[in-house]
């Protein structure tokens, strides 16, 4: 798919391999910022299985699916995890009612999965991030969301 835009305006689309979002937004926007540079903004990716549109109840499974969806979106936009310039992680507070809820947000299992993901597909790169504990996400069964921005410079 040609994700370029000659108008200088953002191009928004939904890639295959990621569950379709509600009609209020697109998963990806590509904005030309210089003749050979594109800003890629991704909607928050969550643990929705693109094959079934189901949401696992397990927090770790949701995180793993969110990272797979993030990677699919980056690839669809012609980017890689190494192109990420900023990440936001949203973790629902009170997600299990168990011991994990009493631990710091950073210690709830997502961060080691993030580092493993970035080691595997992002060359060990650690982009700046923001981590937020939130009351809820768009659907009550969602426990984790990851949002990323990337910049891609095309070669001459």
Key words describing this protein structure:
seven-stranded mixed sheet; globular; 19% helix; alpha+beta; YjgF-like protein; 156 residues; 28% strand; RutC-like_sf
3D architecture notes:
InterPro entries: RutC-like_sf, YjgF/YER057c/UK114. Pfam families: Ribonuc_L-PSP (PF01042). It is a single chain. 19% of the residues lie in helices and 28% in strands. By secondary structure, the protein is an alpha+beta fold. Strands 1, 2, 3, 4, 5, 6 and 7 form a seven-stranded mixed beta sheet that branches. The longest helix has 18 residues, at 59-76.
Query: Can you tell me the overall shape?
Result: globular
Structural class: alpha+beta
Major sheet summary line:
7 strands, mixed
| Spatial gap, N to C terminus | 20 Å
The amount of helix comes to 10-25%
Rounded radius of gyration (Å): 16 Å
Number of strands: 7
Q: What share of the residues does DSSP label as strand, in percent?
A: 25-35%
Order of helices and strands: EEEEHEHEE
Low-confidence stretches: none
Q: What's the total helix number?
A: 2
Mean pLDDT: 89
InterPro entries: RutC-like_sf (IPR035959), YjgF/YER057c/UK114 (IPR006175)
Organism: Vermiconidia calcicola
Protein name: YjgF-like protein
